Sequence to fold (558 residues):
Amino acid sequence: MNRRNLLGLLGMSPVALAGASALQASDKKTDQTKKGTTQTGGPKLEVLNPRGLPPPITLVPMAKRLDTLDGKTVYLISDGFPGADTFLNQISIWFKKNMPSVTTVYRLKAGGFADDDPKLMAEIKEKGNAAIMAIGH
Amino acid sequence: MVTIAFKDLALTNAAKRGMPHERICFTPHPVWGKTDEQMYAYLEGNDPVSGKPLMKEVIGALTDPLTADESKSGTITPPTGAPTFIDTADNLQQQFLDNGMTDFMPIILPTRERVDAMLKATSHKPDEVVGKMTPAQGAFPAWSFTVEQVAVNAVMAGALPDYFPILLAIGSTGISALFSSTNSLVSAAIINGPIRDKLQMNYGIGAMGPFNQANATIGRAWTLMSKNLDGGGIAGETYMGSQGNVINYNNLIIPENEKDSPWTPFHVQKGFKPEENVISFFFGFNITQGQGAKGLGMKPIPHYHEAMSANVAPFASLFGALFILDPLVAHGLGDLGFKTKEDIANWLQKNTTVTVKDVKTMLFSGLPRGPEAAGLTDDSVIPKWPKADAYNFVVCGGQTNPYHQLANMSYRLSVSIDKWT
Fold:
């Protein structure tokens, strides 16, 4: 599934953003695995929805982009999963070979993978121009 | 940058967090276990989602001007779905299955009458918010849910109304049984107090198997709650366990065999009174049998403590140890001089050791830090866990054999069941 389709399923395409719903995403995703509904007779029943209540989604405007990376400092952030450090080191090597004017700074984010690291974020804002975060393993 | 295995998770979670257009570039998966050359080749290759050169995508993500959509602010209120569904029984079963609201086995359809019967088992109002739950704390937005929504899931699992306070207590903790980790983690709950007998729970022969309605359906309801109350359990999106775990079907529900135990019940260890009904939660990798280890062949009394130490030694230190001891083992340990659970915990903490060299080669097994690390060499012998509270014990079983099982799991918390009656 490409991003456009997936965002469409989320109801978050440019056209349908107002109807966005993570819940809908889940519903429609599982619809795709549907083997086909039966059309069995018999009396109809009314049953209750078992789902909880997702929180409202506050849209976060993305940060203004740079005009160029030339001469800029790019932070390379690992979330601590195995392999992220060595992968980011390869990105650093790639910049040295292909865009030597770019300075890279490697940092391991503090805490668990989902934890915020305010100290690091403050450092990036003060000393960096951009950041790449590596997630996965 | 995200490895391709986490594509759906990354895109949907970014959207749920308010960044539906977050610029994410994808690499092949995995990076773990790959050489420098292989990873560099990833960078020289294409983004597997866009099909375009990966590093060109990365640079574009940092420098291409924002679109109007990427600059949007505001709030979206996700729809909660219809409050009820109307169809034939077969079609409703299919609908619940198709929409990921089951454990892929038939459910009891949650009719108004059945849900109302469940609600009569608590003094709490149907619209009272019980708590918030997320597939993984911090990683996904938490959903809230009401007493009635817990009741719907309880009915679906086949739970009887008398079990309902236990399920509300589970819900109040916000602990999902389907924690989203690539590690295929499992959850356990120890139940203490008179409610075990009131509900005719099984803490004897076959206690952790499919031999008792309360044990089985309480565990199943926890799994259904973990799918429906927080949007969890969607493989590839809100559940990432690489292989999954059969225990996730109905979890480890362990009523303690208090009457046959020589030791203090688990909930009393945690500060509750013996007459209180309490549920205690554990979380971690898995459970395994303890038979056959060294020491169990010793006569006249098997050296259970040595076997327990040998069995627990290979565990990952990320989580602790939960021993499930048949009453025969607990009494045997008592005969060997371990008069309390704390006695055996202290012995295991002192005598279960590993070398620094071994720890360095293990995953999820952190080395001591700070002052405790001073002077350590590769040959230094250190405790498996630095504190005795990493070892926990519950007595459960029917005394058909002096066996133990053990789980690589950590204690989380204990909560009252009685407040939900």
Summary: Residues 177 and 403 of chain B are 26 Å apart (CA to CA). Chain B has 14 helices and 14 strands. Residues 287-414 of chain B form one domain. Residues 213-228 of chain B form the longest helix (16 residues).
